[in-house]
Amino acid sequence: MKSLAKKLENRIIVRLFAFMGIGAGISAVTAYILTRVPEYRDFLCVLNVENELMLSVSGWIFLFLPLVMFLAIPKNISTLSFPAVALIFVLFCSLIGASLSGVALVFIKADIARGLIISAGMYFGMSLTGAIFRKDMISWHCILLTALWGIILGACSCLLFPLGVVDIAVVFVTIVVYCAVTAYSGEEMLQIIAASDQTKLNQMAIRGALAVYLNFVGLAVKMLRFWQSKGKCM
After folding, report:
1. Paired residues of 53 in beta bridges
2. Which comes out higher in pLDDT, residue 225 or 219?
3. Between 49 and 68, residue with greater pLDDT
4. Where are the domains of the chain?
5. Which residues contact 102 (CB under 8 A, 6 or more apart)?
């Protein structure tokens, strides 16, 4: 019985990784459009008096929209249907891409879309690995394997498309952040699976993927509070 429960859990996690790949892909497409299409780029950024890029008012709005949505997510999300959760997931992933594109374009001067695309490939690779080998997808060594997928894909990208030092750093930092948040969300994934209808695999998987994405913003808020508290102590 325990073995069957573990197999079911791994099937859900395999789908969850696939949804995470879709989510990272949505973020990548959003970031690509916002940084490549001139009309969107003009909407996101403006030039200051020193002819340097800075976020426009709309760019700052895009930067904080994920936080607004994070606070607005309904508490009873577990009762929502699969299409409703999927819509929230797509919208949130798009907002993450929009937010990161502005930060990368103005403050880092790097291409965040490439790192997001590689992260999408990393999750799809892990979903395929889990489907074939049927291992414990929440264990620490599987998280390390996820990072390994990302490093291999990132290295291949650097070899095929010569990048600057900053772009290479952004690619690998993106991979590390995605893996770290996934590891941080492991216990929450298991709680979602345990508390859900075991016959609705896709709904559990996308709820888990959404929880991981929400934790991106949640951890950012915690870091801001930490730095704020440190500032008060000084």
Report:
1. 47
2. 219
3. 68
4. 2-233
5. 34, 44, 45, 55, 59, 62, 63
